[in-house]
Specification:
Elements (H helix, E strand, L loop, with lengths): L1 E3 L6 E6 L3 E6 L5 E5 L10 E6 L2 E6 L2 E7 L10 E3 L44 E5 L3 E2 L6 E9 L5 E6 L7 E2 L6 E2 L8 E9 L3 E8 L1
Antiparallel strand pairs: 1-2, 1-8, 2-3, 3-4, 5-6, 6-7, 9-15, 10-15, 11-14, 11-16, 12-13, 12-15
């Protein structure tokens, strides 16, 4: 579902073989794993927390698994949503209201899962989201970004690459932009740079 980095010291939350939900810190020998059969067309709140060396896995506020793992989380690989950064396995489902908190163990026991949207951050900051590569049959020359965004006083700047993220061209939302000046390539990626409390809910790129 979600990963930050990959081996040896990345973090993953993933649903494997249609039967087990995992919270894994790759460098350690232990997982927090929950045998699970989620119902189709049903929303679930999933939380993975580490407090000290203790890992917790919650579904709808109920603690379902715990384990111990003290591996330092150190990675230069970015956040991947809906896929496994290392193996490229894709999640068949919907993800909404993704939140990552560093330095705060938000839950260490059962809790009532939220019933409304998270509020935006109160401090300024910048975040970058980069997609996986999408193979095109021929090198695209133009692209258009279509996005569902809420700026909340912040900004979102969009970029498109056709050479697997080596070269980027800034593209205004819902405006046809030329990427023909980039080195020829068929590996399409998009990037979004968010500032302050801006929210990106959905995005697609057409070429």
């Amino acid at each position: 579902m979600v990963s930050v980095g990959n081996d040896p010291n990345g973090v993953e939350i993933f649903f494997y073989a249609g039967s087990t939900l995992y919270f894994r810190i790759q460098g350690g020998a232990a997982d927090a794993a929950y045998a699970w059969s989620p119902a189709a067309s049903t929303c679930y709140h999933i939380a993975a927390v580490r407090a000290g060396s203790t890992m917790y896995l919650f579904v709808n506020g109920a603690q379902q698994a715990t384990n111990t793992n003290s591996t330092d989380i150190q990675t230069t690989v970015g956040l991947t949503v809906g896929s496994d950064a290392g193996a490229g396995r894709n999640f068949n489902g919907w993800i909404e209201e993704l939140r990552v908190e560093k330095g705060v163990a938000k839950w260490t026991a059962g809790f009532t899962s939220p019933t409304s949207e998270y509020s935006g951050p109160t401090s300024s900051g910048t975040g970058t989201v980069i997609s996986n590569a999408y193979a095109e049959p021929v090198a695209p020359t133009e692209a258009i970004v279509i996005a569902d965004e809420v700026l909340n006083g912040g900004t979102i700047t969009y970029y498109v690459s056709r050479d697997n993220g080596t070269t980027w061209t800034s593209c205004a939302k819902e405006t046809l932009c030329s990427i023909s000046g980039q080195p020829s390539g068929t590996q399409l990626k998009w990037k979004a740079v968010l500032t302050d409390a801006a929210e990106l809910n959905a995005i697609s790129v057409a070429v």
